[in-house]
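Subject — a protein and its fold

Tokens — whole-number codes for backbone shape
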Amino acid sequence: MLVAVHAGAGFHSQNRAKESIRACKQACKEAVKSFEQTENILNATASAVVALEERSMINAFPHLMNLTTQNDPCTNAGFGSNLSLNGSVSCDSSIVLGTGASGAVGNIQGIKNPILVAKALAIEEMKGSLSLGRVPPIFLVGEGARDWAIEHNIPYFHPEKLITDESHQAYSTHKALVERKAEKDAHSSSCLYDRLDTVGAVCVDSSGNVCAATSSGGVLLKSPGRVGQAGVLGCGCWADACPEEDISVACTTSGVGEHLIKTMLATRLCEAIKHSTATASVVEATSKCFQTHYQNCEKFFSLNEPSSKQAGFLGLQYSAAAGVGEVFWAHSTHSIPIGYMSSRDARPNAFISFMEKDRTSQVSSEDCRLNISGYCFRLK
């Protein structure tokens, strides 16, 4: 199997880079370990996202010792996520298998690992059983999602215990700016989008079984009740396995949720990948898709700041017959942390893709500058 992960498109300083790389490496290791134990692509993908939601921060937050592991502050998912306008943590997450099974949660509070709720929903759907004559849900939000998670033995914590000193400080600072109507200033308003660290993972095994997942705490100072792209199937992530065409594809996105939802970028990118067979055509197709359906789609955007139209994505394509595939990533933002590892590898490869440091793979137009890179792999 191969797993690839990202820790969010946005701006990553040198100080945050090391933590982001470490998080991506750990996520890859956990996914490979899970697959070796279960040979289940759903478990492997969820394990990667859990590792990105969680990091060991016991020394920094001793009052949270009752949480088995703590979230890395370099990501924005689960513990330590961006705070909503009312000062609470609410998260979104979704997971999709190439077979069509899926699960998603939105605006869920008190759950440290929302991806586990999305995974549990996908498992319920795969069982195909009716409960009291009702079709099992695949998308739950708010209190209903929280109660369903508790009923299915997913740990619940008091919402205040998921707030870190870092996230509270960012909340206080930016809320004060907004209250002073500083959002009218381009710099002040765009700073709300600096932390777009949605996390995501894509996985595929040698038989072509494929899965994609994403998790996010949402944009800073979001409206209470808001659901971002990470909780909307086909927008935060998508996967599709087509045995008759001998191709499996998967994609996960990062950016401003409202725009990714309206453009359904993850689904569109998967379609673009699916109909592109060569590396060159994948680059061309994905860049065209991004420019046409996201960057240049003016009718969908209510914000005029360039930063609100920036995004990143991670995808893969794989041929089970040939046993080969390609994982690739792209971003119009300053940077995006990437990691990947196959079950053949002794260790993961992780790094920060910077826009200004990799000009050889940039695709440019008047309206869009997109940094695209890739890696070919073999599973047979």
The chain has one domain: 2-378. The mean pLDDT is 81. The first strand starts at residue 2 and ends at 6. Residues 2-378 form a domain with the Glutamine Phosphoribosylpyrophosphate, subunit 1, domain 1 fold (CATH 3.60.20.30).
